[in-house]
Amino acid sequence: MSASNFNFENSLNEVSKLDAPLQRGPLMRWQRKALEQGRKQSEIKCGNSRNALTPLQSTNTRTPGKSGERSAGTKKTPSKSKTPNKSQDRFIPNRATTDFSRAHFIMTNSENENPDDSTEPDYQQKLSEAMGNQNQEGSKILSFKQKAPPVPEGYHSQLKVLYSSSKSSVTKCSSLRHIPQTSERILDAPELVNDYYLNLIDWSSNNHLAVGLANLVFIWNASDSSTSQLFELEGPEEYITSVKWIKEGSFIAVGDSSGNVQLWDVGQNKKIRTMGGHASRVGSLSWNSYILSSGSRSGAIHHHDVRVAEHHVATLDHHVQEVCGLAWSPDGRHLASGGNDNVLNIWDASLGQDVTPVHTFTAHDAAVKAVAWCPWQPQLLASGGGTADRTICIWNVDTGMKVSSTNTGSQVCALLWSPIYKELMSGHGFNLNQLTIWKYPAMTKVAELMGHEDRVLGLCTSPDGTTVASAAADETIRLWKCFEPEKTTSKSKSTKNSKGSTSVLQKSLR
């Protein structure tokens, strides 16, 4: 090996020697700990630590001691308090006493009048607030409210502010009757048109349920659960828009998308006549004895006298958009019409050509499809608004005044009254698609019936008033036995019912 190689190896050995401490690099752990202890001791001596005791502090606290170990000959003196053996243990003052001292300082420096007088009620109240006792009225961070907060000013449409809840509260009423929470029967309704403005279901006094499905009309006989097709529209793009049974008998009126109204005798399965005159589809129908009223998308309402050849006897032209709700009062004195123009009109039974509404109500902020007259008080009318409104209003048409207004929280699609229990039922859309029973006149919730997967488009009741049929956009018709009278204990009545006086509908649903 050459001399140059030996010199290079010696140079490497000199450089790699570790027999002296490094001048650069991080400190050892024991060095850092010693420096930390020294810094803490210096802070304690200078009075920078927050170990000063307040006058109200408890006596069973730990007193910090000096650092270092005791000598071997020093005896341990018994004491109530334990002396820490490590200098890094710091005293943590009682937080409650510290807050009280701070609150007392704030009070004595902020009040100029009688700062030492702690017997005044205002002093105690302010002292409690300064200590953080937030139990005063209105000081809660979270609070529960029955209604959603109002829409802020500046919103032109309430659709911009929507509130929903997973489950709405139901106020218990004095009535303790049992209301089934599930439907009694479910009927399949394929191709039921999902259109808010149409009225596609109705129940006759003969216990026949009529429903319009696309361009077909079907009749379901509740007596024997049989189903039959009444007729089919011939046009490929035509569809059924409304159905309505006459109050007594087997005649039914059917509106279509072409603006025609057909009159059928279901007992003989025969079409009586076709009545035209509308410029657009007929979405709503209502009977008043032999007068049939029809509402069109054009906003016009026609009165048809079905007894004569010239059936068109009057026109009510006051709505500027589609008439989607139409209902005659039980006494036949007034006609209620709701439109997509957010207007509810009340018409007199007069059939003159130049007819103006008796009342025009503009309280709703959306389309008024749901209209229903009270059976036991013919002057009372219930109306419901669409998505942007979500309210049910009760009107007195004799005085023209609004009796009450109830925010339901969801789209109101249909309404009907129950004379058995003096209650009102409403069918809803977004977001629960539920049926709600309201106690009148308090308008408190009695029950909510869930089951439909899409919005409820129509409601109708059975001839005996015990069962409600709801047609929804999920293409199902559900039967709810929610108004069944309570069972009587009379022996004569029970004997009579056992002999076959039970309603035909109840027999069909067993």
Key descriptive features of the protein:
single chain, 510 residues, 4-stranded antiparallel β-sheet, 6 helices, 28 strands
Structural category is: alpha+beta
- Rg calc: 41 Å
**Helical residue percent?**
10-25%
Annotation field: number of helices:
6
The termini sit apart by 114 Å
Largest sheet: 4 strands, antiparallel
Provide an overview of this structure.
With 510 residues, this protein is α+β, with helices and mostly antiparallel strands. It has helices at residues 3-15, 29-46, 95-110, 121-130, 491-501, 504-508, and strands spanning 185-188, 201-203, 208-213, 216-221, 226-232, 240-245, 251-256, 261-265, 270-275, 282-288, 291-296, 300-305, 312-317, 323-328, 334-339, 344-348, 359-361, 368-373, 380-385, 391-396, 401-407, 412-418, 423-428, 435-439, 444-449, 456-461, 468-472, 476-480. It has a four-stranded antiparallel sheet, with no helix packed on it. The protein has a four-stranded antiparallel sheet with strand order 2-3-4-5, with no helix packed on it. The longest helix has 18 residues, at 29-46. The chain is elongated and about 135 Å long.
